Amino acid sequence: MLVGAAMMPHGNPVLNPEDEETGKLAEALKEIGRELSRADVYVLISPHNVRMSEALGVIMAENLISWLGFAGVQLPGEYKTNKELAREIYLKAKAENLPVVDINFASLSGEYSRFPLTWGELIPLQFLEKRQIVLLTPARHVSRETLVKFGEVVGEVLEEYERRVAFIASADHAHAHGNGPYGYAPEAKEYDELIMKIIQENRLEGLLEIPDELINKALPDSYWQLLVLYGVLKKVPMKVKRTAYACPSYFGMGAALFIRE
After folding, report:
1. Burial zone of 91 (CB within 10 Å; 0-12 exposed, 13-18 middle, 19+ buried)
2. Which of the residues 3, 30, 136, 206 could staple to 45 if both were Cys, CB 3.0 to 4.6 A apart?
């Protein structure tokens, strides 16, 4: 059963907030952690793990190990994959003819079945109580409809699963706010404001109306995961309990907590 869902950022500033806006974002993330502690399993979709342009990924490795931090910030963490649930998601997606692959490393199971975690997973996980995980990866060169359909499949599987599950989209927003490696584009602010408005109004169908030109200029790291989140919430409707946003650096960060009606 799906007990809740969230959008959580993966930027280092939330770990040690240095301004009031980022502090409020961190507080929202702590509330998300408290709310989702009711779950037995987390299903987490992250853009900073294995990168595939044209295939969605379901990580089947048994052990998920901290490996790569961002900007020198290393975070500990070792987690177990819920392989049963991961397999159900993979098989259901394959049955729906979606471009999905199962991913493992070194060994099919046991001690040597290991896979690395990056800041894309580790930063959200710092705000969540330790649980088993199913790690998913998005793809940017598949259609919007495919991403939403994958979310619907995930939602169906999670709702039918006998244990309590929470779905988390790891997502930072536009990366072109200036003072960073991607320069400045006014579309960054426009994109972030639009995304947060869509989420606050709980009308994620509006994601499908965002022009490609705006996405390409804003340089977000959230759009594709949010389409999957939209698909999940199409199958299991929820209400928005809390949102928060901050932009202390060149990229925007937002949080949102969704709970069952």
Report:
1. middle
2. 136
Q: CA 101, 106, 108 angle in degrees (round to 5)? A: 65
SS3 content of the chain, % helix, strand, coil (to 5): 35, 30, 35
Spatial CB neighbours of 101, under 8 Å, sequence gap ≥ 6:
52, 55, 56, 57, 58
Closest Cα to residue 46, out of 118, 128, 126?
118
Is the pTM higher than 0.85?
yes
Pairwise CA distance, residues 19 & 26, whole Å? 11
Nearest CA among 170, 222, 134 for reference residue 46: 170
Half-sphere exposure of 132 (CA within 13 A, CB side): 16
What is the C-alpha separation between 103 and 36, in angstroms, rounded?
26
Q: Are 2 and 113 in contact (CB under 8 A)?
A: no
pLDDT in tens, 144-193: 999 999 999 999 999 999 999 999 999 999 999 999 999 999 999 999 99
Would you call 242 exposed, middle or buried from its count of C-beta atoms within 10 A (0-12, 13-18, 19+)? middle
Distance, CA of 224 to CA of 134 (rounded, Å): 18
